[in-house]
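Quick one: Pseudouridine synthase from Scopulibacillus cellulosilyticus, structure tokens please.
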Amino acid sequence: MDRLQKVIAQAGVTSRRKAETLITDGRVKVNGQTVTELGVKVTSNDKVEVDGVPLEREEPVYFLLYKPTGVISSVKDDKGRKVVTDFLPEEVEQRVFPVGRLDYDTSGAIILTNDGEFANKLMHPKFEIDKEYVAKINGIPTKQELNRLKRGIKLEDGKTAPAEVKMLSADSKKKTAIIRLIIHEGRNRQVRRMFEALGYQVLKLKRERYGNLDLIHMNPGDIRPLKPHEVKYLNKISVKKQ
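--- reply ---
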């Protein structure tokens, strides 16, 4: 048996906290009866409805996709472009969605799941999940500029958190550099905007690692199920800052 709010969150309806609000607001029914108390537990045989819509409880699934460039981080696109769910194996029947997003022109690691609670946990700004990027930029930053990235860059939506930064290589003839960054925030186009704040354009960007998940032995477009210990570890490290 699981708590009602957990079941609602795992079905991808909303986060567990918002599910609690749905319950206390009288918008949830169990076996036809309105439930307003948070301590209620349900089994797989119980019929749960949210706003009159039956809850479809699916077996949770978790995948790691090596997203190629030119792919939308969504379940559908009104312009008919390729989306991340197009790479799922045909036998997957669950309603899977991406955890967060990668820009259209950015490649790399992205998680797909149908577990709403898991997804909300990983995306919550108060949880710290390391994300490692490798960026090719049109210029060679100075040590002082790299230190600014490390300390945090002021953007229009606030200063970024401290980052781990290392220059992997520099080409003085082409005037380009390869930089590795490890951040734990997930702002829109954050890495690109951090370099733009220093006057550099990102020519190529790849997310090489998400938490404990890397792309070793994977090619663009490859997808694989997460192993139980990988899911367990991501749950474990998504701990709120005290």
